[in-house]
Amino acid sequence: MSHTNIDHYEYHHREEHSDSALNVTDGVESQPIVNPYFKRPKRRRLSTDDYVKGILEGNITILSQAITLIESNNRDHYAQAQEIIERCLPYAGRSMRIGITGVPGAGKSTFIEAVGGMVTDLGHKLAVLAIDPSSERSGGSILGDKTRMETICNNPKVFIRPSPSAGSLGGVARKTRESIVLCEAAGFDVVFIETVGVGQSETAVHSMVDIFMLLQISGAGDELQGIKRGIMEMADVVAITKADGDNRHRAELARAQIFNALKLFPLTESQWSPQVLTCSSLTGKGIGDVWNTVEDFIRHTKSNGFFQANRNRQSKYWMYESINESLKSSFYGNPAIAARLADYEEAILSDRISSFIAAKELLDLYKSESR
């Protein structure tokens, strides 16, 4: 049926039923979803003084905005972020920085919620930051599972912040360390730095914390399988999680196995013997022991001078890391390098030039362009 015939049919159809009690109207025109007269108010851009004042007052909103500046790739934002960090530095450094990593399924989120609730009950303020190296592959945000932390998410003494959603591990780690400074200046005296990925992220976390904690589960076959020797050597405390119900015996067995394995490693520079504990984030059993061990470690390292020596070494390390990251960014961002890089790659693959000579020529080109 054509469009004209349809109109004709509908007209006569309405005429035939004009005496009907049922009356169908044509309706009204669709209205716009957004009010055309609505104007979004422009948000005033905060000055560096506004940021510093808000952070020192413990304003969470301004703290979040300042961390967003740190994560931004905008040059103006980066410059302002560095000013804010510099002015907050005198008020930072007064927290316990605790690194937390663990095998998949170890229950890091539940553990952090359990310890976090207890820590705030003791009068502390807790900030939870994270390093997620997988973000540079997926480009996605992390800490989506933190929505499960219903208790501490609504706790005014807790601040939870995901890592930047993209970038190299070195860049993400540097931004996380800068965020620590702002959190400490805002009054958070306990900072958890969680690593969500595996591999080099543990080393990055270890280079910015006072104590490194490894979460492990039992009942997964060989208790030492999948744990890299390097991670075990970095661990100051190992917590066997989910030690409740029928799993308690297996957790104790895992604790004994890991404790015996750790005894084979030489004593660390901190002169601390790594402790292995069992705990249950659901029942709370053993959580207090884990926190007491953390405090024992901090007291031990402060008394023998390792605490401050370690922080000094970390500060030097991050100075060099920042230099390396900046030089790398400058090199690959140079237009002359970007224009020639593909040609050199092709020359290397066709064996017309060696990798080392190609690198030298590109570096020489970069130096000449930088003059």
What can be said about this structure in brief?
52% of the residues lie in helices and 10% in strands.
Tell me what you see in this structure.
The chain has a 7-stranded parallel beta sheet with strand order 3-2-4-1-5-6-7, with helices on both faces. It has 15 helices and 7 strands. The chain has helices spanning 3-16, 48-56, 60-71, 75-88, 108-121, 135-138, 150-153, 169-185, 200-206, 229-234, 248-262, 287-303, 306-333, 335-349, 355-370; strands at 96-102, 126-131, 158-160, 190-195, 211-216, 237-240, 275-278.
Binned strand content:
5-15%
Spell out the helices and strands N to C.
Answer: HHHHEHEHHEHEHEHEHEHHHH
CATH class of the largest domain: Alpha Beta
Overall body shape: globular
CATH superfamily of the largest domain: P-loop containing nucleotide triphosphate hydrolases
Strand order of the largest sheet: 3-2-4-1-5-6-7
Main sheet makeup: 7 strands, parallel
Radius of gyration: 29 Å
Residue windows where pLDDT falls under 50 for at least 5 positions:
6-11, 13-17, 135-143, 221-226
CATH fold-level assignment of the largest domain = Rossmann fold
Terminal CA distance reads 77 Å
Number of domain units: 3
Percentage of helical residues? 40-55%
Secondary-structure blueprint of this entry?
Elements: H1 3-16, H2 48-56, H3 60-71, H4 75-88, E1 96-102, H5 108-121, E2 126-131, H6 135-138, H7 150-153, E3 158-160, H8 169-185, E4 190-195, H9 200-206, E5 211-216, H10 229-234, E6 237-240, H11 248-262, E7 275-278, H12 287-303, H13 306-333, H14 335-349, H15 355-370
Parallel strand pairs: 1-4, 1-5, 2-3, 2-4, 5-6, 6-7
Helix pairs in contact: 2-3, 2-4, 3-4, 3-8, 5-12, 14-15
